[in-house]
Amino acid sequence: MWQSVASRIQNQNKWWFLIGVLFVFIFFVLPIFRLFFLSFSSESGLTLGNYMSVLQDRSTWKTIENTLYVVLGSSIIAIILGVLTAWVVAYTNIRQKKLIQLFVFLPFIIPSYITTLAWTQFMSKNGFFANFLSLLPGTLEPINMYSLHGIIIVMGISHYPLVYLLTVGVLRKIPRDLEYAARVSGSSKWQSFRQITLPLALPGIASGGFLAFIASLDNFGIPAFLGIPGNIRVLSTYIYEQIVGLGPNSFERAATLSVILGILALIGTFFQWLLLKKSKNIETAVEDKEPRFLFHKRKRLTVEIFLWAFLLMTTMIPLVSMLSASLIKAYGLPFAPENISLKNYQFVLLENQKAVTSLKNSANLAIITTVFCLVAGTGIAYLRTKKPSMITKGLEMVIGIPYALPGTVLALAMIFAWMEPIPGWNPGIYGTIMILFIAYVTRFLILQVRGSITAFMQIDPSIEEAARVSGSNGFYKWKQILLPLIIPGVISGALLVFLTALTELTVSSLLWSSGSETIGLVIFNFEQAGYSTYSTAFSSVIVLLILLAFFILTILQKLWDRKVLHNEHTN
Amino acid sequence: MNKLKGGLLLSLVSLALVGCGSEESSTNSGSEAGIEGDLSFYTSQPDEDAQKLVDAFTEKYPDVKVQTYRSGTEEVISKIKAEQKAGDVQADVLLVADSVTFEDLKEEDLLLEYKSEELSEIPSNLVDPDGMYAGTKVMATALVANSTNVTEMPDSWNVLTDESSKGKTIMPSPFYSGAAAYNLGVFTRNEAFGWDYFKSLKENDMTVTKGNGAVLQAVADGEKSYGMVVDFIVARAKAEGSPVELIYPKEGVPVITEPIGIMKDAENEEAAKAFVDFVLSEEGQQLAADLGYTPIRKGIEAPEGLQTIEEMNVIDADISELYQAREDDKKEFETIFGQ
Q1: In order of start, what are the domains of chain A with their CATH numbers?
Q2: What is the radius of gyration, based on Cα positions, of chain A?
Q3: What is residue A309's three-state secondary structure?
Q4: Cβ neighbour number for residue B8 with a 10 Å cutoff
Q5: Which pTM does this prediction carry?
Q6: Which residues in chain B are contacts of A332 at CB distance < 8 A?
Q7: How far is Cα B291 from Cα B233, in angstroms, rounded to an integer?
Q8: Do A231 and B47 touch (CB under 8 A)?
Q9: Among A26-30, A352-356, B335-339, which is the least confidently predicted range?
Q10: Which helix (H) or strand (E) holds B112?
């Protein structure tokens, strides 16, 4: 009798499984294939014609050249900044490391297009930096942000937290004993760094560097805000302009360019994955959080001052600059008490219908996407950790493709997939908010899956077995045992999904329609039209909301930790 | 097993919520006669101005809900053409920079004929004789100069090609701004300028940005000293205290009329017609004047600092030639100014 029950459950599992696979195929695989095929199609059937015309166009090569220059440049900056800060935080005895880490993450939390706005205000002719430079001798002028260098700087600063995150973990896992052994055997500090620390840390650092590489390839906001006014194109903005400009064959050309961009991104992802695997050899080691280099008090203070100066320069100061620009009542007026006015905020928050609608739209999209991804992602993560097999591993990889691919490419794939899924049938999804929802879920599901997998992997299987042996199974096991343990990890995944979906620009810039504007898009449109007063005002509001949300969350986390720990103690 | 089912249920519920959220479009009460329902308004006017126009209209017709799509003229038209390709043009009323754009839409049979009663007070040469569109304002493209950087105000378009202004000039892009696209066509067909003028602009390191708003901002901030820009935006900024001056060059100025028209497949024809009537009426034209535009209707006064059409020295060109050559003109511009 038990045999038949067991086999019946197994059969039911198979049905769910098939549905899941079908779901993944329709939403994740099919759109990408269609995009791929579109790049080969023309009125007369399959052809290489699109590739020929695109690759023979001089501006395509200039764009690819710009893209590689920008991406490599910003990755190098991200690696240098990330490794330096990671080394200081992981190995030295400076104080307030938690606070420093928060400031390091700030450029990552704040959408990159807002960071861009902040920097353009900071470097503007009337801005803080110009005023500061005028105090110095000579006629120094602020950097022109609307240039390749401007793009590289802002991208490097926005992405170095990625390198930092990976490097800090890797550095902490390198066993101290290895370094001690080297020092005891006679090597100097520098030698032990070069021959012990560096080789062990290098795969992790390189993996972080590739993450920055992919993030730069995918980034649309920064080159859109800085490059378009200066007529500088990279692949992501070039594809955008093709679609928005609607010349002849624009969709096919955009598809071709997307394939090129997608291949570059996938190559980067492959290398990143390879290097991450290599650095995971020291995964089992516990993080050693004790400092390894102890500075004297004075040296420590100097290092701290430099570090804080750097952190404030790259986060707070440009933001304050943006805030002050939003408070001026007309362009070109200096920042003086008589020129301050809240009228830009009044327009953006009360009068402009689109700005208000976008807040609602983005909030809705973010909440529903997060809930959906939370449930589906955690379910998939559970499967992945409980039953690791070729199929589940393949599933995870396929789900990760829409995130690995640049947002522009994904948006284009979505347009084709949903404008006419089956020739002749227009389901009315393109042109409404539904397509944004579908795009967001496909793109961000992997974030939740990965967050939940990490959470599940931290639970020893023996805990589940102990629960089963003691008689609890199914729902009760989940409620009392598993959920409290995985919630921090799962919630952090959900938070990432929520924040990214709320402030997203790349995908919405191509998929929006009247009435479904998102926050990022409204800021983008204001800036494109030249109304920096409105874009800075709205951006300041968003930054305040984000910081507020993080503040509340930190408090909640502390309360939760206390509650869970408290429970553990009382048992 | 249970958790999978629960999860699926939850996700279905959220999908349903999204579906409910996006169904805002059908709010027709249906019962009362009169102007009501949804109206889709596509425009290239600055956000603030479009918003004030819509607000004034909905004050008069409170049962109408207006959805605005705003971008540069060229991008608005791209969007309409993309919607046409997808089989469903969503715009009802269109108000963009210039008549050449409307000629193109007229040729493609995308417009609805409507001769408003208010047309009796509008100069007939600024209105389409077939009733497809009508001008709503008088807008010239002129020079703007930063009054802090520039001591002696120029009086000619040649200041933009003058060596002393190298790298300090800025203009809007004909790929975004309809006014800029129109000006391109008009200037290049004028003997005094032609394509050589644009080549000289490029040699003088002219910056090409997107819209007129960005041009004004760059000059007001002091980043650039001179700009080619629409007149009303300068007069308005100057009145608010920005250090800018508006100059009508002696060679003359190209003039656009920001026409309004109704799309052929407009879903709410009644409301669309009421909107056109409103814009051309005394009330609508006075609103435009209050916003800082030069009105087109006879009898409404132009704001301070702006010239009326009688005072201007107008440069123009043959409209049918302009609209046929627009795409080629833009391509030629890209060749000169491109990367």
Answers
A1: 54-341 (1.10.3720.10), 343-571 (1.10.3720.10)
A2: 25
A3: helix
A4: 16
A5: 0.81
A6: 146, 219-222, 237, 242-244
A7: 10
A8: no
A9: B335-339
A10: strand B111-112
> Do B98 and B181 touch, CB atoms closer than 8 A?
yes
Please identify among residues 46-65 of chain B the ones whose CB lies closer than 8 Å to any CB of chain A: 46-48, 51, 54-55
Torsion region of B172: left, alpha or beta (phi above 0 gives left; psi -120 to 50 gives alpha): beta
Shortest CB distance from A372 goes to which of B11, B217, B339? B11
Q: Return per-residue pLDDT of chain B as tens, 339 residues.
A: 444 544 444 545 444 444 433 333 334 433 334 788 999 999 999 888 998 999 999 999 999 999 888 888 888 887 788 777 767 788 999 999 988 889 989 988 999 999 998 888 888 888 898 999 999 999 999 999 999 989 999 999 999 999 999 989 999 988 888 899 999 999 999 999 999 999 999 999 898 888 888 899 889 988 899 999 999 999 988 988 899 999 999 999 999 999 999 999 998 999 999 999 999 999 999 999 999 899 998 888 888 888 888 888 888 888 888 888 888 898 899 888 874
Contacts of A375 in chain B (CB under 8 A): 7, 10-11
How far is CA A232 from each of CA A224, A228, B337, rounded to the nearest angstrom? 9, 6, 12
CA atoms within 13 A on the CB side of A172: 17
Domains observed in chain B: 34-136+257-295 (3.40.190.10), 138-256+313-337 (3.40.190.10)
Would you give the DSSP letter of residue A517? -
Collapsed DSSP state (helix, strand, coil) of residue B141:
strand
Partner A, chain B 252-271, Cβ-Cβ below 8 Å: none
Distance CA B214, CA B219 (A): 9
With beta carbons less than 8 A apart as the criterion, state whether A508 and A362 touch: no
pLDDT in tens, A218-261: 899 999 989 887 778 999 999 888 877 666 677 788 888 888 89
Answer left, alpha or beta for residue A431, where phi above 0 means left and psi between -120 and 50 means alpha: left
B338: which residues sit within 8 A by CB, 6+ positions away?
A59, A231
Residue A373, by phi and psi: left (phi above 0), alpha (psi -120 to 50) or beta?
Answer: alpha
- B81 and A246 within 8 Å at the Cβ level: the answer is yes
CA distance B262 to B78: 17
B185-200 burial, b if ≥16 CB within 10 A, otherwise e?
A: bbbbbbeebeeebbee
Is the separation of the CB atoms in A336 and A472 below 8 Å? no
Q: Which pLDDT does position A360 carry in this prediction?
A: 92
- Which chain B residues have a beta carbon less than 8 Å from that of A514? 40, 42, 67-69, 90
